[in-house]
């Protein structure tokens, strides 16, 4: 990443941004720019750019209202770094995620777009979207994307995964051991396990969630201080209303 | 989570706020109406309404509340996409714990409910027992935590 560029300089923000938020946004931009487990830094930044394209994509808007999201043919608004299947996955996750199916994910696998790549892609998409959406919520401009750092993906795959809960393999609840022992304590939830095929994707989203929402420790505290200026009921009202409009069953 | 935090805080809360019922904001959640309007204009991507809601929240509750609210709202744009794109079902223990709330808010209408089997009669009956038990357990844990902190 270009060290001369200062990302997330909120000095022009009309509202003071808490230090934890500034730090985690800066930290994620550095992570984004480097090679992950299955994509290079340049590819990860191209995925981030597609998150932004998806929100302006005419084809995505048409497809969102189509009876079947798999029948309509068209061209996405897109860059030229990623394959069409990868671009399509980013756009679907951003604009029409509730109609993604196991068949869709597995048909991509048949075409060589692996589960591991898909999971890393989901991680990049949701983290970039979350940071961009924080800016939109406050009326702040989007941060420019970082410059890629050279390097190759490490192709790390956890030793123990299972394939009977979701569309992709995940580490089983009791499987956060060895190099994955930091992912969750004894008890876990499916949302924590969701991206565990790419453990670094879990680590990245948890770091951001700790600041945007609550830390794992604070999540178990329903009535006491939580380090935020809003109490738990206020937090859950906002979370619930956003989730309801997003039709989030989970 | 709103239901549970309200029960544990012994607060009066009408859960229909989650479905956007403005009349439901007359309860013990401070700034409920402006928080609800901010969340919904944000999630609907209605930029005109969001600008108004942002100003209203800022004027009524201040900049720190606005920033923390923006963080939570942004986080929950992410959660639905993780859940739906990976196809995770609701966790078994939450199926029982949240059966009543899901019924009250009619969450089964959402497309992503397809990943979680409908709660059986047995599970719904279990929820009548599981929820008070969970509440007692969390209260006990919170009491232990505050004792160890003091």
How would you summarize this macromolecular structure in one to three sentences?
Chain A is mostly helical and 250 residues long. Chain A has helices spanning 19-33, 41-54, 58-65, 84-95, 102-110, 115-138, 190-193, 199-212, 216-219, 232-245.
Model description:
The complex is a heterodimer of chains A (250) and B (150). With 250 residues, chain A is mostly helical. Chain A is built from 10 helices and no strands. The mean pLDDT of chain B is 84. Chains A and B meet through α4, α6, α7, α8 and α10 of A and α1, α2, α3, α4 and α7 of B.
Number of domains of chain B: 2
Main sheet: strands, sense, barrel of chain A: none
Task: Determine the number of helices of chain B (DSSP H or I, runs of at least 4 residues).
Answer: 7
SSE sequence of chain A, one letter per element: HHHHHHHHHH
> Based on CA inertia axes, which overall geometry of chain B fits?
globular
Can you count the beta strands of chain A? 0
Q: Level of helix content of chain A?
A: 40-55%
Radius of gyration of chain B: 18 Å
The proportion of residues in beta strands of chain A is under 5%
Query: What structural class should be given to the helix and strand makeup of chain B?
Result: mainly alpha
Shape of chain A: globular
Biggest sheet overview of chain B:
none
Q: Nearest-angstrom radius of gyration of chain A?
A: 18 Å
- Number of helical elements of chain A: 10
Structural class of chain A: mainly alpha
Number of strands of chain B: 0
Number of domains of chain A: 1
Oligomeric form: heterodimer
The rounded distance between the terminal residues' Cα atoms of chain A is 36 Å
Sheet-strand content of chain B, in percent, reads: under 5%
């Amino acid at each position: 990443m270009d060290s001369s560029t200062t990302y997330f300089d909120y000095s022009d923000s009309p509202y003071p941004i808490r230090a934890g938020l500034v730090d985690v946004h800066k930290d994620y931009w550095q992570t984004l720019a480097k090679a992950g487990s299955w994509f290079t830094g340049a590819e990860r930044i191209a995925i981030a750019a597609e998150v932004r394209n998806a929100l302006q994509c005419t084809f995505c808007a048409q497809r969102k209202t189509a009876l079947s999201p798999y029948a309509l043919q068209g061209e996405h608004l897109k860059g030229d770094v990623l394959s069409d299947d990868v671009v399509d996955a980013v756009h679907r996750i951003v604009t029409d995620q509730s109609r993604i199916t196991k068949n869709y994910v597995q048909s991509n696998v048949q075409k060589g777009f692996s589960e591991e790549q898909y999971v890393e892609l989901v991680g990049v998409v949701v983290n970039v979207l979350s940071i961009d959406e924080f800016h939109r919520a406050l009326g702040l401009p989007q941060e420019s994307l970082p410059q890629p750092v050279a390097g190759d993906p490490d192709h790390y795959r956890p030793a123990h995964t299972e394939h009977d809960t979701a569309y992709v393999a995940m580490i089983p609840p009791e499987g956060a051991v060895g190099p994955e022992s930091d992912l969750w304590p004894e008890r876990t939830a499916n949302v924590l396990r969701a991206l565990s095929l790419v453990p670094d994707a879990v680590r990245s989203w948890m770091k951001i969630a700790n600041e945007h929402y609550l830390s794992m420790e604070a999540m178990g505290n329903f009535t006491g201080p939580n380090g935020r200026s809003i109490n738990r009921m206020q937090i859950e009202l906002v979370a619930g209303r956003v989730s309801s409009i997003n039709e989030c069953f989970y | 989570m709103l239901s549970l935090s309200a029960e544990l805080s012994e607060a009066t809360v009408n859960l229909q706020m989650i479905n956007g019922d403005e009349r439901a904001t007359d309860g013990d959640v401070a700034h409920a109406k402006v928080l609800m309007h901010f969340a919904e204009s944000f999630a609907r991507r209605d930029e005109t309404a969001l600008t108004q809601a942002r100003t209203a929240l800022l004027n009524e509750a201040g900049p720190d509340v606005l920033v923390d609210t923006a963080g939570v709202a942004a986080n929950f744009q992410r959660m639905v996409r993780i859940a739906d794109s990976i196809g995770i079902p609701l966790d078994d223990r939450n199926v029982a714990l949240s059966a009543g709330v899901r019924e009250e808010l009619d969450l089964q209408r959402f497309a992503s409910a397809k990943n979680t089997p409908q709660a059986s009669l047995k599970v719904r009956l279990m929820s009548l027992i599981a929820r008070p038990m969970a509440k007692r357990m969390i209260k006990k844990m919170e009491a232990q935590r505050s004792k160890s902190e003091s």
